[in-house]
Amino acid sequence: MTNSAPHPTPHVAIIGGGPAGLMAAEVLALAGVKVELFDAMPSVGRKFLLAGVGGMNITHAEPSEAFLDRYGLRRPELEKLLQDFGATQLREWIHGLGIDTFVGSSGRVFPTDMKAAPLLRAWLKRLREHGVSLHTRSRWLGWNPDGSLRIAGVEGERAVQADAVLLALGGGSWARLGSNGAWVPLLAERGVPLTALQPSNCGFEVAGWSRLFSDKFAGAPVKSTAIALDQQAPRLGEFVVTSTGVEGSLIYALSAPIREQINQQGSATVHLDLLPHKSLGQIETLLRKPRGSKSISNHLRSQLGLDGVRAGLLRELSDAASYADPTLLAGAIKALPLTLVNTRPLDEAISTAGGVPFEALSSGLMLRQLPGVFCAGEMLDWEAPTGGYLLSACFASGRAAGLGMLAWLQQRVAD
Questions:
Q1: What is the rounded end-to-end Cα distance, in angstroms, of the chain?
Q2: Rounded to an integer, what distance in angstroms lies between the CA atom of residue 295 and that of residue 40?
Q3: Coil, strand, or helix at residue 87?
Q4: Residues 222-243: pLDDT tens digits?
Q5: How far is the CA of 60 from the CAs of 88, 122, 309, 363, in angstroms?
Q6: What is the pLDDT of residue 352?
Q7: CB of 39 within 8 A of CB of 134?
Q8: How far is residue 33's CA from residue 409's CA, in Å, rounded to a whole number?
Q9: Residues 6+ apart with CB under 8 A from 27
Q10: ∠ at Cα 335 (330, 337), nearest 5°?
Q11: CA 148 to CA 192: how far, in whole Å?
């Protein structure tokens, strides 16, 4: 009986140091795989840190069905990943790093100190303790003819051989933080099918505000307002008027259907309910009260509390005939049409839609066109609103890709 030679420790390269890449690195390192992670920026997790500046919203505690519905058309694909590592498992994992979390009044989940930096520091410490090598200022440039990776660093370019590769390069927004979409042509020239990158969680432009309105209200928050698109139920929240249009959480929540309607029809019209807590009948009754010598602006303020930017929007987006008729004016207040004609540029968006479609990937997130090359995170073709959903899916896909890489490496050894 002869003893077979021991198999060498597999070596993987991960390109991208965001949540997806780091999570895959952890899965692989804990399994005894040699992991080298390369990131083009001076430090890893830069977009993750910036996203946490206003409070690190890590995930969401709403019921599972509502949570999964946030992923729209890609719910079936992401559901498989989130069932294995969803909001509950993510919180438990964070607690394992010594970071406590809490659920806010809106259901959003935050670290107790609301900061991303302590979480990232604890995570990187764990990764280093398990042997993960982190290489910053190291930009991936594609492949050499022999299949090795081209990595450009501060001392020039070098070739890196790896048994498997994970690409976790983000989408195409926030180029200054590393997510610049430069990977698109590198995959396209290898025959990988791709869906065009588009802005998601983004602002939109109107055909043009009047100069008077723009000068007075650009930058103003519009609070306690509801927005509806087509026949969908109105969403309550707030948004911000910009010099070119609108942005903010309420707009981001509808960014996917607004964008798709603009793509198909050239524009999209949303309807603003400026007084969502009053009925149409109540508003009309109050408008019909005698106003004596009061101006219509003062009448709106005294009877309805409608002033500032909301009164400005009403004036900007309705006509003189509406102001002359309480029925028409009440209707405008409850369903004020706002036509949007363009998304803001991709690099301004919080996230992106498009990228590598799931149909181009195996169940383990390996590219069918490039065996041994896996993808995870925002470079996959999915989108979700802000509120913890983006990070949740990035973590889950990174974990799934790490497990997929392990299975593929083990199969190669078995073969």
A1: 20
A2: 60
A3: helix
A4: 999 999 998 888 999 999 999 9
A5: 9, 22, 31, 25
A6: 94
A7: yes
A8: 10
A9: 398, 399, 402, 403, 406
A10: 120
A11: 18
Average pLDDT of the residues in 275-288: 94
Q: Which two tokens stand for residue 185?
A: 């042509």
Instruction: State how far the Cα of 233 lies from the Cα of 268, in Å rounded to an integer.
Output: 16
Q: From CA 144, how far away is CA 272, in angstroms rounded?
A: 54
Helix (H) or strand (E) holding 141: strand 139-143
pTM for the predicted model, two decimal places:
0.90
Query: What are the pLDDT digits (tens) for 163-221?
Result: 999 999 999 887 888 889 999 999 999 999 999 999 999 999 999 999 999 999 999 99
Name the residue with tokens 């101006």: 295
Run of H or E including 38: strand 34-38
pLDDT tens for each residue of 119-169: 999 999 999 999 999 999 999 999 999 999 999 999 999 999 999 999 999
Contact 357, 368 (CB under 8 A): no
φ, ψ for residue 237, nearest 5 deg: 170, -145
pLDDT reported for residue 56: 87
CA dist list (Å): 297 to 100, 220, 239, 307: 50, 19, 22, 8
- Spell out the SS3 assignment of 224-274: EEEEEECCCCCEEEEEEECCCEEECHHHHCCHHHHHHHHHHHCCEEEEEEC
What's the chain's length in residues? 415
DSSP string, 193-217: --EEEEEES--EEES---HHHHHHH
- Type and span of the H or E element at 150: strand 149-153
149-153 β-sheet, strand order? 139-143, 149-153, 156-160
CA dist 84 and 80 (Å) reads 7
Residue 306 in contact with residue 318, Cβ under 8 Å? no
